[in-house]
Amino acid sequence: MDFVTSWSGGKDSCYAMMKAIEQGHSPKVLLNMMNENGKISRSHGLPLAILEQQAQKMQLPLEAVPATWTDYETHFISTLQKLKTNFGLQAAVFGDIDLQAHKDWEDKVCAAASLEAVLPLWQQDRIALVNQMIESGIETMIVSCNTQMGESYLGKIMTKALALELEEKQIDPCGENGEFHTLVINCPLFSSALEIPEFTVKTYNDYCFIVWKDTD
Q1: Which stretches are transmembrane (predicted)?
Q2: Per-residue pLDDT tens digits for 187-205
Q3: With 70 as the cut, is the pLDDT of residue 216 above it?
Q4: Contacts of 208 by beta carbon, 8 Å cutoff, 6+ apart
Q5: Sign of CA dihedral 167, 151, 15, 84
Q6: What is the reported pTM?
Q7: Which of 3, 137, 172, 180 qualifies as a cystine partner to 91, CB 3.0-4.6 A?
């Protein structure tokens, strides 16, 4: 099946895409929902320039869609419908692991666009998944996290040791509940590693995040 990847820029969407390719499916386009001004991604707070760099390194087009939370679903469905027509798609690939509400929503929006929702990571063990991602060659950096983790984790590369450390602190090593988000800086799908802009860190409303420089 030809598919669109719901691309956050992070490890889960990347690994889901890699697994879908392993299963014989073919990626045609990446979809990311941006904030209303179209400059920063809604899910991971990544600048458009970084997402475009990832897409270029995979030689795939990126559909970056500005949306408010109010019209998010409407825009998501209409974009899926457009991409289905433009790229001859049969499926959409998502990186969710076990949040049922997320899967229900993905099934719903895909049904509205007559696409099959494919979730290659669904209901797999968290720590095993992180280890598989690392072993498969996915290199990710933590770009935002909650204050339980704190600013010291920002910019850290995910390793097996770090995943265990998080688990020991009762933090989901996949960050499935939003404990942290990652940026894929290299993986087998990329032609080469990302060039990472300089950044500072900031805490706002009980969440710590990277502030990127020179990405406009």
Answers
A1: none
A2: 999 999 999 999 999 998 8
A3: no
A4: 144, 145, 146, 147, 149, 150, 151, 153, 154, 201, 202
A5: positive
A6: 0.94
A7: 3
